[in-house]
Amino acid sequence: MATSTHPHNENATVKGARFRGEETKPSFKTTELVVYVLAVIGVLIASYAVGDGSANNGADYFAADKAWWYITLLTIGYMISRGLAKAGSRSSDTDPRTH
Questions:
Q1: Per the confidence metrics, is the pTM higher than 0.85?
Q2: Looking only at Cα atoms, what is the longest distance across the chain?
Q3: pLDDT band at 44 (very low <50, low <70, confident <90, very high)
């Protein structure tokens, strides 16, 4: 039979206990998503409004391919910002298949 060499005090408080918070907020609850959606809508409206080119010999200053390129860049930026937001968070998931 093994005996413990450390004294046990049942009335002692645990110091240094950390609150284990949940993972970061879902994306639909963040302002990042709102800003991203507004920026995409802004790019599409600007492309539509500027892109007619009727005043300048039919030239299209802000063509659809350029608008979609900006939307792609916005999407990449949004994905990176969400990845950085989740990078240091801990998950409280206890499913062994996800570790």
A1: no
A2: 96
A3: very high
